[in-house]
Amino acid sequence: MKPYRVLLYYNYTPIPNPEEYREIHHLYCIENNLLGRIIVASEGLNGTVSGLAEDCEKYMNWLENDPIFAGSDFDFKVEEHDTHAFAKLHVRVKEEIVNSDLPVNPRVRTGKHLEPADFKELLKNDPDVVLVDMRSNYEHSVGKFKGAVTFDMETLRELPDHVHEIEHLKDKKIITYCTGGIKCEKASAYLIDQGFENVYQLHGGIIKYGLEEGGEDFEGKCYVFDNRVTTSVNTVNPEVISKCHICETISDHMVNCANPECNEHVPICPSCLEKMEGACSEECKNHPRKRPYNPSGYYSKQSDNYSPEFGFKSRQKTNVDYSSFQLSAE
C-alpha cells in the first residue's frame, strides 16, 4: 500500500460565511500537512488534496463531523499515491465551486444519480442510453467513455452554446459524466431546464467508476488537476486513444506547454517532449519566457500574492478569533 492519498470531493451545502470558513479550512490544512486546491463558496465546498494516509483520514473525519455539513454526503474519491500530488496549498473563496455561470441550483433539481454499478449495468443493457462528456476539450482528448458525445468547449460556461448538438437526442436517456461528478450536478440540471426529460449523471464521476467498477470502456486516461496530470482508471479493457501533438504517434503522455504564455494542454510523447524541451511548438520552444525542461511535462501554476502564509495574514482582515476554533479531528 502506498503511503499517500489523493482525495477528490465536493459538497453542495450552503456555507454561511465563506471568508471566515476559508480561514478555518486553510489553517487546518496547514497544521495537518495537506496540499491541494480547495474552493469555498456560499453554495458549498470543492476540493482535491493530497497527504499522508493518516492525515487524509483525519481530514475526511473533520469535514464529515463539521456541523455545517451535517446530514450531507461528501462521497470522497480516494486514490493511493507515492508522494504528494500537489506542490502547494490553495484555499480560495469564489462565486461558484465549479465555474459554470449556469442559472441552476443542484440542491433544487439535478439529474438522477447513478452509482457506478448501476451506470455499468445501464450501459450494457439499455440501447437508448447516450453518454455526454461535460469536461473541457483537453480533458476528453486524452480519455473518454467509448461512444460518448463530446463538446469542443474550454469550460462549462460554454455548455449553452453546445446544447443544440444533442437536441435530436431528447427522446434518449442522457447520462452526463465528468471527472468527479461536480460539473454534472449543474450540467444535468441545465439539460433538464432545456427540455431533456430523462437525464442521469454518473455519481462520483470517472474516478469513482474506476475505483469501484474497474473503469471498463473508459478509453485512454483521465485528466486530473494535480502533478500527475493524468491517471489510469481502466483495468478491464484499457486503450490509448490520444496521439502525440508533435509526431502523431500513439501517446497518452499529457503535458502543459513549457511556455507559460501558451500553457497548452496536449499529449506529447517523451521523445518529442525532450526534443522540444517541453514546448508544444518551435515558437514556444524559442520563447524568451519558456520554463526549464521538465520530463513530467507538469508545471505548477504561478500564484501571485498567494502563499501558505496568506491565510495567517488575512486573519486581521476578517477579525476572526482563532482561539475559539477546535481544529482537532477527534
| Number of structurally distinct domains | 3
Low-confidence stretches: 311-330
Strand order of the largest sheet: 4-1-3-2-5
CATH superfamily of the largest domain: Rhodanese-like domain
Query: What percentage of the residues does DSSP assign to strands (E)?
Result: 15-25%
CATH topology of the largest domain: Oxidized Rhodanese, domain 1
Query: How many distinct helices?
Result: 10
Label the structural class: alpha/beta
EC number: 1.14.-.-
Keywords: Oxidoreductase, tRNA processing
Protein name: tRNA uridine(34) hydroxylase
Function: Catalyzes oxygen-dependent 5-hydroxyuridine (ho5U) modification at position 34 in tRNAs.
What would your notes on this structure say?
Helix content is 24%, strand content 20%. With 330 residues, it is of the alpha/beta class. The protein folds into three domains: 4-97, 2-Layer Sandwich (Alpha-Beta Plaits), CATH 3.30.70; 112-223, Rhodanese-like domain (Oxidized Rhodanese, domain 1, 3-Layer(aba) Sandwich), CATH 3.40.250; 242-295, no CATH class. The strands form five sheets. Strands 4-1-3-2-5 form a five-stranded mixed β-sheet. It has a four-stranded parallel β-sheet with strand order 6-10-9-7. It has a two-stranded antiparallel ribbon with strand order 8-11. The model is unreliable at 311-330 (pLDDT under 50). InterPro entries: Rhodanese-like_dom, Rhodanese-like_dom_sf, Rhodanese_C, TrhO, TRHO_N. Catalyzes oxygen-dependent 5-hydroxyuridine (ho5U) modification at position 34 in tRNAs.
